[in-house]
Amino acid sequence: MKMKTLTREKVKRMLDGKEDFVLINVLPEESFQAEHIPESINIPISGGHFGKKMRESVPGKSRKIVVHCGSFQCMASTAAAERLEQMGYKKVFDFKGGMADWKDAGFPVESS
């Protein structure tokens, strides 16, 4: 099955339009605390607890989920999206450009 991807503009429109979806930053916690897209949550792909944290944070398998990592070169979001599909999540999207692409557009970021 082909991975569904989203552009930064689409993600921004979804956030601005208050669409019902979960935006997940899969980078390590330190990266997330330094900077992240507003309204995103942090569930790191590394560390071995990804599946458990996903089930706790997003119990409904039909909820729309958008994952992202650091940049087009970073493969963590693709790995996370594949893992989520294996776990049975139905509406998984990969925002390939991640933080670098988001910031290049001048979109807002925040820190914890």
In short:
It contains 5 helices and 5 strands, in the order E-H-E-H-E-H-E-H-E-H.
Features:
single chain, 112 residues, alpha/beta, Oxidized Rhodanese, domain 1, 5-stranded parallel sheet, globular
Q: Report the biggest beta sheet as strand number plus sense, adding barrel if it closes.
A: 5 strands, parallel
In spatial order, strands of the major sheet run: 1-5-4-2-3
Helix content: 25-40%
Low-confidence stretches: none
CATH H level, superfamily name:
Rhodanese-like domain
The CATH architecture would be 3-Layer(aba) Sandwich
Overall pLDDT level = 96
What CATH calls the topology is Oxidized Rhodanese, domain 1
- Beta-strand residue percentage: 15-25%
What's the total number of strands? 5
What does this entry look like structurally?
By secondary structure, the protein is of the alpha/beta class. The protein has one domain (4-104): 3-Layer(aba) Sandwich (Oxidized Rhodanese, domain 1). The chain is built from five helices and five strands; from the N terminus they run βαβαβαβαβα. It has helices at residues 8-16, 29-34, 50-57, 76-86, 98-104; strands at 4-6, 21-25, 41-42, 64-68, 91-95. Strands 1-5-4-2-3 form a five-stranded parallel beta sheet. α4 links the parallel β4 (64-68) and β5 (91-95). The longest helix has 11 residues, at 76-86. The chain is globular and about 35 Å long. The protein starts with a strand and ends in an 8-residue tail after the last helix.
Question: Which helices and strands, and how do they pair?
Answer:
Blueprint: E1 4-6, H1 8-16, E2 21-25, H2 29-34, E3 41-42, H3 50-57, E4 64-68, H4 76-86, E5 91-95, H5 98-104
Parallel strand pairs: 1-5, 2-3, 2-4, 4-5
